[in-house]
Amino acid sequence: MKTIQINILVFTTLWLTACGDRGVNFFSVDDDKSFGEELVKSLEADPVNYPVLQRQGNEKAYLYIETMMNDILKSDQFKFKDRFDWEVHIINQDVLNAFAAPGGKLYFYTGLIKYLDNAASLAGVMGHEMAHADLRHSTQQMTKVYGFDILMSIILGQNAGEMTNIAKDLALGLGTLKFSRDNEYDADRYSMYYLAATKYDPRGIGSFFEKMIDNSEGSSTPAWLSTHPSDDKRLQNIADTYTKDDEFKKLFKGDGSYGLYKEEYDAFKNLLP
């Protein structure tokens, strides 16, 4: 009986500490990191579906994108800037996609990088993905879908098959692990908060949607950016953050120092296969 009471107490404590404004998360921060590491291993073990561009031979391309990530990490808005092991990977596929694994592991497809027009756009998308990681949206959704026991078995390396399925869902932004409307709005807004501390125009995330609309591709927006809100609604949310959000106004430098950096971005794209 005493053991049962202790287990109930532990479960209740986990539940209360995991509850936040946007849902429940049974993962600890260390669990996020461990899960992210396991997911990276799963992706690396499947080069046919995830042909990650190796750093050796592509040092200049990785230096550029890693410098961008480190610039974004200068923002004081991150909760786990120093707790997560942030790193970025490039997947060499003509796919309009990007995703973040728990614990700060970021993946960008060459198809998306080449589709974007300037550095601020990529920084906006990167900030969006970093927000999903820092706000712990992935493990929050996993808690909801899979439950505590299955997730812990994956962390302990006891359920490799399930990890493969989760990796696929995260990479495609599909299935049960796709983010909620509120998650997407939060990630858009925090992307702007982060970029306010950089040289990049904080509205970079919005330029992606603008291009999709201009090219009449709004109906085919990638799942990772279009879970619930339409492109128009996302643009309105971004515009409202820029003009009405008090937190953003405090972060915005207002000195005319932001830019798009198209020329340097074109040089970066030319480094890719």
From TrEMBL:
The UniProt keywords, alphabetically, are: Hydrolase, Metal-binding, Metalloprotease, Protease, Zinc
Q: Which GO terms describe its biological process?
A: proteolysis involved in protein catabolic process
Entry's family note: Belongs to the peptidase M48 family.
Q: Transmembrane region positions?
A: none
The reply on keyword GTP-binding is no
Stretches assigned to the Peptidase M48 domain? 64-240
Q: What is this protein called?
A: Peptidase M48-like protein
What GO molecular function annotations does the UniProt record carry, in alphabetical order? metal ion binding; metalloendopeptidase activity
Its taxonomic path starts at: Bacteria, Pseudomonadati, Bacteroidota, Bacteroidia, Marinilabiliales
Which coenzymes or cofactors are required?
Answer: Zn(2+)
Which Pfam family is an annotated match for this chain, by its short name?
Peptidase_M48
